[in-house]
Amino acid sequence: MKYSKYSVVIVGSGAAGLYTALKISEQIRLPEGILLISKSALGESNSRYAQGGIVGVVHQNPDDNADLHVKDTIKAGAGLCDEETAEYIAKASDEVINDLITTGVEFDKDENGELTFTLEAAHSVRRILHSGGDATGKGITDALVRAVQNDKNITVMENTMAVEVLVTADKICEGAILFNKLTGEHEIVYTSALVLATGGAAQVYKYTTNPNGATGDGIALAYEAGAIIQDMEFMQFHPTALAISPDSKYRFLISEAVRGEGAKLVNSKGEEFMSRYSDKRELAPRDVVTRAIFNEMQNENMPNVYLNAGVIGEEKLAVRFPTISRICSRNGIDISTKPIPVAPASHYTMGGIRAEVDGKTSIAGLYAIGEVASTGLHGANRLASNSLLECVVCAYELADYLSFTNLDSPEKIDEGIKKMIDVYSRSISGDSYNVDELKSKLKNIMWNNVGIIRSEQKLLEAQKEIEILKSEFKRRRKCLNQGEYEYRNMLIVSSLIVESALSRKESRGAHYREDYPDTLPTALHSNIVRDDDKELAYVK
Ligand code: FAD
Ligand code: SIN
């Protein structure tokens, strides 16, 4: 099998991966260079579709400060945020956001050339920077992609998927197996620093705001490699995704910023209902608004509620929300005059690979940055627009950490790793599985049983059905194509969500158990590590 060697290998080209590559290139001279791989085209990612914005606790905003931001983050996080992490990220925000501006990101400004800040749920002040109105993700990723393409220290491999993390028996990461989806070939890459920036896993649910690539690959790979996986029961369901028809599984996001600018939620009778659920009404924390909408939908037996954005005014809607206006208009809805049908959809994976602010995981040489990581910033319910901030601050910190780390490759290849590699040089027999059908079965199981409202009975049902799917899917490690690898990873991640949800016998933030509606006095993280003796050991 073909192999190569790089000082640092970054997997994923969303905000976290792109910015990590740039910062490392800027800070460190590496003899064996930086490799950035992406299973998509460069920059294609969740990051690209981010709408509302990025939290900017910046000196340009006199109304805000780090303490206020930390308080809001912790309050929304329902007792589970890591306070130190929240403080660190809030304090680093000014430097990193201004560095993004220097890198070429153009945030929206007013007629005087001053940055403009919007409001989103559970923020006590206007602090969200945006770009292109509601196209913040595109504004950020386009600028970062341009910078990466101009950086001679970074080698880019597109359409290439990481399918296994290579770890020694002593839990040292020494590289990864890659799969090129265009040629169908596998290859090995050795490195002393493997950075997973592969994003979240919201695609394991039937209805999601996430693009197809969000299949939780990094979480599954790290779990298989023996890393600690934290808080997987906390999947954030965004309250307002466009719900044109029950058949359209991809739910285009209607940004929280639309509510931040004054839009109101109404049920099918046209009644505003949020005051019955929270005195913060439309701007209550996301988990609260999601459950309120879900409850209204169930009570009325309706597939959606509505968002009235007309109050914002036609002119402002066109400037602030051009993308949302365009997509809705394409679907026959003039948002300045007509209510938008909306329903919740899976949106953000708050759990993931347990990591520190600088990306260190429980495996030496393996780092996790962005949505794939669980740093404890988001607790049980992420505060809107904190995720992009977390991506860039943690990337910045990782580059700093690596600049003091020995990145020389080991002299010879570990015996255990040689055996892992062997699996990929053997051919596999049989036809490809119909992964679209299999993914769809799994996504239904997750939506119906592991969704917004959970119970022991439903979770056990999901556990049983996922076990059947696993037993029917015979691939353990090497697969035939990208779809099979993604499905393998989705099975692993779904099991992690179910197991964590079963073990959390309380309701907290995004994890709501109707059989345990109360919140326990002490907030604890849930951690899972693969153990060959336990049922969860799936792939190996
Ligand atoms: P991603 O941006 O998802 O990037 C992951 C990358 O990894 C992709 O390039 C993918 O192709 C690649 N990849 C995945 N698996 C593999 C593999 N096995 N091998 C190789 N490559 C792989 N957050 C905010 O803060 N503000 C917002 O306004 C906002 N709006 C959002 C709107 C939408 C519609 C969505 C879906 C999310 C939004 N979020 C927002 C959340 C935010 O976009 C994400 O949390 C954040 O962008 C994650 O960035 P990331 O770089 O960690 O992952
Ligand atoms: C949104 O614009 O509503 C998404 C913001 C986020 O997920 O942080």
Describe the structure concisely.
This protein has 14 helices and 20 strands. The protein has 540 residues and is of the alpha/beta class. It folds into three domains: 284 residues, FAD/NAD(P)-binding domain (3-Layer(bba) Sandwich), CATH 3.50.50; 108 residues, Alpha-Beta Complex (Flavocytochrome C3, Chain A, domain 1); 111 residues, Fumarate reductase/succinate dehydrogenase flavoprotein-like, C-terminal domain (Methane Monooxygenase Hydroxylase, Chain G, domain 1, Up-down Bundle).
What does this 3D model show about the protein?
With 540 residues, the protein is α/β, with parallel strands linked by helices. Helix content is 34%, strand content 16%. It contains 14 helices and 20 strands. The strands form 5 sheets. Strands 7-3-2-11-18 form a 5-stranded parallel sheet, covered by helices on one side. Helix 5 (217-225) crosses helix 14. The radius of gyration is 22 Å and the shape is globular. Residues 51-52, 253, 255-257, 348, 384-385, 387 line the site of succinic acid.
Features:
binds flavin-adenine dinucleotide; FAD/NAD(P)-binding domain; five-stranded parallel sheet; alpha/beta; Methane Monooxygenase Hydroxylase, Chain G, domain 1; four-stranded mixed sheet; 540 residues; Flavocytochrome C3, Chain A, domain 1; 14 helices; binds succinic acid
